[in-house]
Amino acid sequence: MSTASTRLPEGRYGRSPDGRADHKLKIAGAVLGAALLALVGYFAYHYVGQNEISAQVITFQASDDAVQVHLEVRKDAGAHGYCTLRSQAANGDEVGRADFRFDQHATRIDKVLTLRTTSRGTTAELLGCHAG
After folding, report:
1. Fewer CB atoms near the end CB (10 Å): N or C, the chain?
2. Centroid of chain to Cα 38
3. What percent of the chain shows pLDDT beyond 70?
């Protein structure tokens, strides 16, 4: 027995529509890939490159009505801004939150801050720093 061929005769019906579609899909994929790469680069630049102030909590010590926080701030020399700190109780309730401004011209600032709390705080958390 012989098997029947399911292929169309070469050149009889013109160019295969699948070839044209594949070419258009490759172009569309390349354009969308480049756009996605540009978008990721844009957000990375604005998140990392434009953030002029960053900080980290070194240590903290809690009492019944305050938390002493040792904060290390790194910033551009001319940058002004603030960092937001908060403290939570053992049950997870927020017991204190405050913004602390940093307007000095130094690029590295080590400072011990007092965060007032409504009851005993068990954490000292840096929520973020913002220029402005």
Report:
1. N
2. 16
3. 83
CATH C-level class of 53-131: mainly beta
DSSP 12: T
pLDDT of 19: 65
Distance separating alpha carbons of residues 61 and 54, to the nearest angstrom: 21
Distance CA 122, CA 67 (A): 8
Q: Domain ranges for the chain, please list them.
A: 15-50, 53-131
* pTM for this prediction: 0.61
- The C-alpha atoms of residue 94 and residue 113 are separated, in whole angstroms, by 18
Query: Distance between CA atoms of 6 and 8, rounded to whole angstroms?
Result: 7
Helix/strand/coil for 35: helix
Residues, the chain = 132
Secondary structure of 47-106 as H, E, C letters: HHHCCCEEEEEEEEEECCCEEEEEEEEEECCCCCEEEEEEEECCCCCEEEEEEEEECCCC
